[in-house]
Automatic annotation (TrEMBL):
This is D-2-hydroxyacid dehydrogenase. PANTHER family: 2-HACID_DH_C DOMAIN-CONTAINING PROTEIN, D-ISOMER SPECIFIC 2-HYDROXYACID DEHYDROGENASE NAD-BINDING DOMAIN-CONTAINING PROTEIN. Keywords: NAD, Oxidoreductase. The lineage of its organism: Bacteria, Bacillati, Bacillota, Bacilli, Bacillales. InterPro entries: D-isomer_DH_NAD-bd, NAD(P)-bd_dom_sf. It comes from Staphylococcus gallinarum.
Amino acid sequence: MKIQNILIAGDYKAAFHRYLPKLKDYKLLFKQPQEIETSDLNWADAYVGFTPSQNFHPEYVEWVHTFNAGVNNYLQLNGWHASKTLLTRTVTDFGQKMAEYCLSYILKETQQHERFSEQQSNKQWSVIAPTPLKEVTVTIFGTGAIGQKMAETFSLLGITVYGISNSGEQKDYFKSVTTVTQSSQYIEVSDYIISTLPLTPETNHLLNDAIFKSFDKAMFINVGRGQVVDTKHLIRALNNGNVRHAILDVVDKEPLPIDSLLWDRGDITITPHISALTDIDDAIACFYETLQNIENKKRINNKVNFQKGY
């Protein structure tokens, strides 16, 4: 693969400034996605950006690098297998960011923040013991890089961490890992169940009645993809008490429509997909590292597996 002309979808020239000397042997073209023309795609060897342009097709370029960790907005386009175009994604500290996001909600409960706040409002002095993290059990759907970083962070604090994956392969920092079909044994004993799953044909609405029925008043946190959850089934699980509270950083339609019933439920917390925001400097650094690996014929660890969808 020979990369010479690189089309960058977005006004990121200032952000690329520190890399321009390193990229002096390449021709770079910065254009907003809506302004990209077919002639630009015909010119380009590589396409870089958060989103594909409206006229994008994999056959135009040899390599696509997305600034996102997720790639479903690219994979929904046809032509990848026929074109044999390389698709890579941004890999950065998403796992650490998501771990901190989830941990904040776990600590809010275990340290009794709401109860102490209520007591203060009532001018009440009543001792309530916080729950030690060594008594907390978490099950994580997804044991890839993000799930594994979460497991590392949680386990170092004494939390018992179980993992659910397609293969059930054992991974470091998890007490044990099993498959979805065997997941109820871990879900039933968990205080918190977290989804880090990407959206693939296999994970679409994977978390439904069959999974939620195993929850025993657990909190559910979704930092993966909204479409992994069947929202109607989640609401049913909240109504019947299987799920005590849902923290949703992702939903099946984003932004969440103003008329969505999810906004008004006291047992649901909505955040606007911020658990692991992409830092543009990190995304560009990952792009440059990937470019170097391509040029030097080194292993490309962030290459997307089209069969798995990530």
